[in-house]
Structure formats: structure tokens, C-alpha cells
Amino acid sequence: MPEFIPHGYFSVRDALDRLGRELFQSEWTGEEHKARHLLISVNALLQMARRSGVPVTRRMPRSTKAPATKPASHSSSDRSEPSHQEEIKARKRQVAAHQRLRQLLEAGKLKAAILDASSGKIHQASVSVWRRLDADRMIEKAQAPVPGNLSTGTLLIKRFAEAKVDAKPMPAAKIQEAMKALKEKMATESLTRVQQRNFVRETFPKYRVTERQLTQIFRAVPAPIGRPRKSDKKV
């Protein structure tokens, strides 16, 4: 049976789909939520840990237990397969839409609520909820604590209009303007890759900025010293 969504609200998945189409246009498939979460190599995880100041070692602790058999879907042999690479891209798009939703909720540009299925009451969620450490998990699970109750409820997003974006790709002249605008922004503020992507698209809302064009823009803007170039993280 389909999940009940009260009038005037979107489910979290529907909200992510709308934001995903706004961010990625034709690249968004609507199947991004099916991509596995753990698609990062061991080396990438080690690098992320070191950048965070967490002590790590490449040597694994010895154990008398026989090593567990890895599932075929997670084996290293399929990492070069086109399907695996597409799944990685899908997961990155999902993470970008997820982070965009949290940013809009924290800024008060979108509103969220929590449905208590036992009482039928809908509780409005304050913007402070999206500054909590477990905010990403709430969005990921589409659940949040019911105020004044020990139970959890369904997380809802108040309906919003889907942004209309010109299907015409950004021309070369505008790409140069985007590079300049991002360089000026980065000179005074440190932004993650997701934040940079959002900044470019918000600065040029009339154009469809493709992932290839974003990569071109990012390469022209030096990453801040001491910060990772990539900001795609597991949520």
C-alpha cells in the first residue's frame, strides 16, 4: 500500500526528486535513491579520515576468524564496470539533492513537518532541527522525532513549486563569467563542491549548467589549501 501523504505536503523522496531535476535536469533519472551508499574505495576513506585528523592505519588487525565472503555486488572486480560507475554518479546526484534539501530547510526557504501517525497530528519542524547532528539521518530515513513524544513520525516537506529552468545549456561566454564569479566568491568564503555547484546554478538561474560544464568551472578555480577537493560524503 502506498504511503499516505497529507494534502499540502510532499514525501521526502518526492521533494528530492523535484530538487534533483532542478539541479541536474535531464541527468536526473528518479532512480538515484536506489544507489548503494558505500561506493567509496578504501583509499578514499583513508584520505577523508586523515583530512579530518582521525588517526588511521592501513594494517588490519589480526583475527583467528575466517574472513567473511564478500557479496558479489560489492566485489572489487565490478568497480570498472559501466553499471558500477553509473551507480556512483547516481549516488553523488542523490547526495547533492539531499544536501540541497537540508540547506533550503535550514535557511527557512522550505518548510518541513512531522506526521504523528498514532494521533494524526502534524507538527511543524523548526529550522533549528536542520542544524542538528542527526539532521542528515532524518532526511535519509524520512523520519523525525515527534515533539513531546518518544516515538518517531513521518517527515514531510511542505509543497513547493518546481523551478523552471531553461533547457538551453550555458554558453561558453557564460562559463567564463561563472568561473570569475566563483573565484571571487571563493576568495572571501570557503565552499565545498556541493556549495560551489549550488552557487553557480543560483547565480545563473536562466541556464542549464551540466555536470561537464561544472567540472570545467571547478578546474579553473583552485581549491582552498588544507581542504579536500571533493565534498561528496556519505549521509
Key terms:
235 residues, 7 helices, five-stranded antiparallel β-sheet, alpha+beta
| Broad structural category | alpha+beta
Shape: globular
**Proportion of residues in β-strands:** 5-15%
H/E series, N to C?
Answer: EHHHEEHEEHHH
End-to-end separation: 27 Å
Number of contiguous helices = 7
Number of DSSP strands? 5
Mean pLDDT: 78
What's the helical proportion of residues?
25-40%
- Low confidence ranges: 69-74, 228-235
How would you sum up the major sheet? 5 strands, antiparallel
Radius of gyration: 20 Å
List the helices and strands and how they pair.
Blueprint: E1 9-11, H1 12-24, H2 42-51, H3 82-106, E2 112-115, E3 122-125, H4 135-141, E4 143-145, E5 152-158, H5 172-188, H6 193-203, H7 211-220
Helix pairs in contact: 1-3, 5-7
What is this structure, in a nutshell?
The protein has 235 residues and is an alpha+beta fold.
How would you characterize this protein structure?
This protein is α+β, with helices and mostly antiparallel strands and 235 residues long. Among the domains are: 9-38 and 92-158, no CATH class; 172-220. Strands 1, 2, 3, 4 and 5 form a 5-stranded antiparallel sheet that branches. It has 7 helices and 5 strands; from the N terminus they run βαααββαββααα. It is globular, with a radius of gyration of 20 Å. Helix content is 40%, strand content 9%. The protein has helices at 12-24, 42-51, 82-106, 135-141, 172-188, 193-203, 211-220, and strands at 9-11, 112-115, 122-125, 143-145, 152-158.
